[in-house]
Design a protein that fits this description.
Oligomer: single chain
Strand content: 25-35%
Shape: globular
Distance between the termini: 33 Å
Largest sheet: 5 strands, mixed
Mean pLDDT: 80
């Protein structure tokens, strides 16, 4: 989750527990037995006369480890003896009751009967597990191989000096990509060339969100400095570059994961035009502003903050119109409906709320409790649906006409961050903490997974996804904490045909 502050270490704070590498250590389980076996002769006395070149400390540690291993085996041996006694006792009882035992040997007969029953049960379990595992492996293999043809890497956008929290595509011409980063800046990019066109440097904290005005060349950014800014931009798209000569030798084979921390590809953000002054500053929050969005028409904006409130502002006057309270913990995201005056806010309190501003005199709110952990985002679709993602590793699809229970639930193997839904095909793009990006339809059927390798895809958690369906081809953009955004070309007809 985006955080307040200027340093790289500060910006990682909220997600840092998920970024820690697990330290591997070798440990030997110690026995809980309170019985101490008399050893008679100590190992140190046994080896005292032997010529050893090991240092005394290392030698003592090894002797201690071997002693622990021996005690463990001794406990197992004792347990085995006790089990044999119990088996003998049970067989004697069976023999006393007059039951016939195969083979004349009571122990072997009872063991054979139990073994036969256990073997049949184990065999059935193995068959069931094998079938389930095989089907999962085959389906995963098909999805992975198919995704290489269905989802192709379009361009990488590298220039930020810290993790990228959010990204968005303009709704007006010229169509550009915007990214919001923990390095206190927002960058605008040429989608086709990957060139950085403009830098906004008006915030004093991490830029946690970026959204573009529906009809004008204005951007709305939310920041850890407790403000949201509205700023204007003017960009000129560069001429398309010719395709590179693949036959010529080059040094581009360097794995992107091998870059140094301060290394930047292409034109750095300092080499492009920079906007430093906002047209309007919205500053009524008492905490980090985590997200912001334009209401339909672009005359009002809504902001979500860690102060547990969402604010509604007038764009022209920067006046605070309403403060939306009710969440019990910090807000994580906010989203507006594309055609109606509806707002949805999500929170760490495991709920998301639907705010209705269609009637000026009535501002109703509905609370939805469908998750068991932080709701990281909730977004509207073009239809009458809301899609919510959570740290509980699920994504739920809701019907606005009946929000009592979800109409579809998608279960994943990792926490879900800021999701997006394509407007035309209604395909859900799920960014995960485990660096994966998966595509699902509205009924919860998995369509594909974006390719990921050491030379393709994100190297750290994926924070956000955004669709661009203005062109004939459908593009999906992803950003992550590896400081880069990636554009993907999604073959929608082939994707739906595979379904």
């Amino acid at each position: 989750m985006p955080v307040e502050g200027g340093s790289s270490s500060g910006s990682v704070a909220a997600r840092h527990p998920k970024q820690k590498r697990k330290a591997h250590s070798l440990s030997i389980r110690r026995t809980n037995s309170t019985e101490d076996r008399p050893l008679g002769i100590h190992r140190g006395d046994m080896l005292e006369g032997q010529d050893s070149k090991l240092p005394p400390a290392l030698r003592n540690n090894l002797l201690d480890l071997f002693s622990q291993i021996e005690r463990e085996f001794e406990n197992l041996y004792i347990e085995n003896i006790e089990l044999r006694r119990e088996i003998d006792s049970l067989n004697e009882r069976l023999t006393g009751d007059g039951q016939t035992i195969e083979g004349g040997d009571p122990t072997k007969g009872a063991l054979k009967t139990k073994a036969s029953h256990s073997t049949s049960q184990l065999s059935q379990k193995l068959k069931t597990t094998y079938k389930a595992s095989t089907s999962k492996i085959v389906s995963s293999f098909k999805a992975t191989t198919g995704s290489r043809a269905l989802c192709q890497l379009l361009k990488e956008y590298v220039g930020h000096r810290d993790g990228i929290w959010d990204l968005s595509v303009t709704r007006t011409q010229p169509v550009v990509l915007g990214t919001a980063s923990a390095d206190h800046s927002a960058l605008l990019w040429s989608i086709e060339t990957g060139k950085c066109l403009l830098r906004y440097a008006g915030h004093a904290g991490s830029v946690n969100s970026i959204k573009f005005h529906p009809t004008e060349q204005m951007a709305l950014t939310a920041s850890g400095d407790q403000t949201a800014h509205i700023w204007r931009y003017m960009v000129q798209l560069p001429a398309p570059q010719p395709p590179p000569d693949v036959s010529a030798p080059c040094d581009d084979d360097q794995d992107s994961s091998d870059r140094e921390e301060g290394e930047v590809d292409g034109e750095g953000p300092c080499e492009v035009p920079t906007v430093r002054v906002a047209t309007a500053t919205l500053k009524s929050h008492q905490g980090v502003v985590i997200a912001a969005d334009w209401l339909v028409g672009g005359r009002q904006v809504v902001t979500a903050s860690w102060d547990r409130a969402a604010n509604l502002y007038e764009v022209e006057t920067s006046e605070l119109v309403h403060t939306l309270t009710g969440h019990d913990q910090e807000l994580t995201h906010c989203c507006t409906h594309p055609t109606q005056r509806l707002v949805v806010t999500s929170s760490r309190d495991t709920t998301f709320r639907l705010w209705d501003f269609r009637d000026p005199s009535i501002h109703s709110v509905n609370v939805f409790q469908g998750h068991t952990d932080t709701v990281t985002s909730a977004v509207f679709t073009v239809g009458d649906n809301v899609v919510s993602g959570s740290d509980d590793r699920t994504v739920k699809v809701w019907d606005l006409k009946n929000m009592r229970s979800p109409i579809a639930t998608i279960r994943t193997d990792s926490a879900v961050n800021r999701i997006s839904v394509s407007a035309n095909q209604r395909i859900i793009a799920l960014p995960h903490d485990n660096r994966q990006v998966r595509l699902f339809d509205m009924s919860g059927v998995r369509l594909a997974r974006l390719p990921r390798s050491n030379r393709m895809g994100h190297r750290r958690m994926v924070c956000c996804t955004a669709w661009n369906e203005e062109n004939q081809s459908c593009n999906l953009f992803t950003c992550g904490f590896d400081r880069q955004a990636i554009g993907w070309n999604i073959n929608i007809p082939a994707l739906l045909q595979e379904k």
